[in-house]
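The data are quoted verbatim here:
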Amino acid sequence: MSITLEERSQALALISRYARSVDASDVPGVLDCFTDDISLSYEDGRKRITGRGQAEAFLTGVLHGPSTHLLSNHSFERIGPAIVATCSAIACVCRKEGFVTLRGLLYVFTCVAGESDLRIRQLQHSLKWECDAPGGLPLR
């Protein structure tokens, strides 16, 4: 079964809300994008976080300092009841004094219908490349 235009719009809105919350270091906002049984995968699967409690602890530890995520090249497919959205991203992260870290990322979001809207059940975050550039804001 294919994905409807409405489902695609809902998935894009969810992914955008997730990225804006990450950029704002808004842990409750990020958690609001997830199901309670969230599964996060970082470093090509070497770091795994499961459940809302572990996700909150992890995000509280890593989300500090300004960032900007630019997401593009979205693709969507249905796998059973889930919508799987894949997208490329460039993240500009200011977490090192005097530097901006630039990251090339690949995200895979597995989204499922909640009671009233879509939520992310699984997130795969893969770092493809990274470099530091001089500049950025002083750390607060």
Q: What stands out?
A: The mean pLDDT is 92. DSSP finds three helices and six strands in the chain.
